[in-house]
Design the sequence.
């Protein structure tokens, strides 16, 4: 055939559609979707994209397959990565790639051997408002950065979530699952490494899911002493226009920027917005700069050894940062008079 | 004459105009302004309101004076409070009332004796958007609160600031000076007491003012374990429409609110805005509820023994909270490889 093919092994989150659609844009076709557990989502996606659902994952690791996409349950992604390494297939996983130190150690072995390339859907670097902010920072339009604050509220839609989502061991929990983007962005925006994190993962809802925590609140110190604030929750009201009114506030000595990642319907837009003011420019929306490529195209460049925005270093450092943070913060029932360990 | 009179002892910050104007609205006239140190601002305000500048502060403590207003240098306000107690005059001070534990102890003695009433310009409780949010919380429109985040950026306008502003010992510094509002609001919104604070006060600018720090970043834990995030800086760009684009984000189990305290010029308004979404209501601006009285009228009610929003308890607890927080956080030069103590 000569047609470029990819496959999906693990289909538990519709984030995988990002990868599928971007691979299609790049001229690839999908050989099949394999899902070991609940196939509800896999069936929906298979039908939507007219992709075969296959019974045997090994059938998706043959010679014609160039690359694998994976949105398995978070704790099983590392198994799929190892499987792909056995068959010499580079793999793009949804975030987070790993949910515990054991998974990270296994991932580091694979990265070290470098037989395959592993990508992760750190999609926020390719978000037009975030990408634009990064260009502004690079151009010195914010001066020296003095603070970064990020808010990442999300809709829970509990009834539509699979059981594993509510299980800390399988999902990784709110900090690992959501803030992996933020830890990556902190490194990217500042060019500094993460030094330490302190904060709290709080549980005040859904006692029927004892290891599901609904808020996270972290102060993250960077290598130069800069302290930043991260926050995420599963409390976006169902009537909100967006799954999550994400915001990023970056303060520098020469300018200030606010990103409204899902836009602002009161400004007539639910598309991303970057607002900026400086010593020279009044507070206004700025024209967004589109990233040079999709995250999938960027990963293919990385596989080919060409310049890419994301590399193995970003994958490992973001993963390590969230795991270290998750170990450093307190897990607490609220209201509570005592601390509780997550049931991991 | 029978005319109701007040006086100003200490005029180092134009916040005192809030008190002057509200006293005028209440039918009082001002007997005079006394300022011991630099009288630049005192002269401007005296001329603007046609108030005599007096040479002897004791002339403003006679029988005809019902109440004193004070915006002295922050570390000297407690001296004026003690002076007023000697003369049996209740006093409204700009915030912060005290800047160190010694000042707080002296204030507590006066509060305990209760010969006079002491008020403090915790004006944010009377801000229409903040007041409205409090009513929404009271009415259960946010459900149980799961997070509060507050941002308090400010313009520095360094050339217009008096020397004492840049001196930690005299001013109290960014945490005490600015976050006293936030600590008060945390107590007010939640009905909980402050348990602990952790964070950083950072210095990355103005080496010529060695004890001036420009950012503060704190996680504040309330008695029930709720963790909240506070941030303030002196980095609002000069081209911003406002002296400070203050924001308050409150997330509850039933609703979410964002306050844009200086409005949003892109929404056509530089007046305060409260945005709200819930399980029933889409994201929209809500009608603001005006507070029942000005902070000055509220203080006069308190003096008369009538119901008031602010009492001595709020004054002491907000003051103690910021002093405790200031002692708990790290002071750090950024970029820095080591911690530095503020030169206090």
Sequence:
């Amino acid at each position: 055939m000569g047609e470029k093919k990819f496959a999906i092994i693990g289909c538990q989150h519709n984030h995988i559609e990002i990868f599928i659609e971007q691979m299609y844009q790049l001229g690839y076709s999908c050989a099949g979707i394999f899902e070991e557990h609940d196939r509800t989502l896999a069936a929906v996606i298979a039908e939507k994209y007219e992709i075969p659902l296959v019974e045997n994952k090994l059938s998706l690791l043959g010679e014609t397959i160039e690359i694998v996409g994976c949105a398995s349950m978070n704790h099983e992604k590392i198994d799929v990565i190892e499987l792909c390494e056995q068959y010499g297939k580079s793999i793009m996983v949804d975030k987070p790639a790993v949910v515990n130190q054991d998974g990270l150690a296994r991932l580091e072995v694979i990265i070290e051997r470098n037989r395959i390339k592993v990508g992760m859907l750190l999609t926020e670097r390719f978000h037009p408002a975030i990408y634009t902010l990064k260009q502004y920072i690079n151009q010195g339009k914010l001066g020296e950065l003095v603070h970064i604050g990020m808010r990442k509220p999300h809709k829970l839609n509990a009834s539509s979530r699979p059981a594993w989502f509510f299980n800390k061991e399988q999902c990784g929990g709110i900090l690992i699952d959501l803030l992996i983007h933020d830890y990556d962005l902190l490194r990217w925006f500042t060019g500094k490494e993460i030094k330490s994190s302190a904060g709290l993962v709080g549980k005040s809802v859904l006692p029927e899911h004892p290891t599901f925590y609904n808020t996270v609140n972290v102060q993250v110190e960077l290598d130069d002493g800069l302290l930043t604030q991260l926050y995420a929750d599963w409390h976006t009201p169902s009537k909100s226009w967006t799954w999550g009114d994400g915001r990023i506030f970056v303060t520098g000595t020469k300018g200030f920027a606010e990103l409204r990642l899902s836009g602002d319907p009161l400004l007539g837009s639910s598309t991303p917005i970057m607002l900026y003011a400086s010593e020279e420019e009044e507070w206004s929306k700025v024209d967004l700069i589109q990233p040079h490529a999709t995250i999938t195209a960027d990963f293919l460049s990385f596989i080919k050894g060409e310049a890419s925005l994301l590399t193995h270093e970003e994958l490992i450092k973001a993963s390590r940062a969230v795991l270290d943070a998750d170990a450093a913060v307190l897990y607490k029932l609220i209201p509570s008079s005592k601390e509780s360990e997550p049931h991991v």
In short: The first helix of chain B runs from residue 16 to 25.
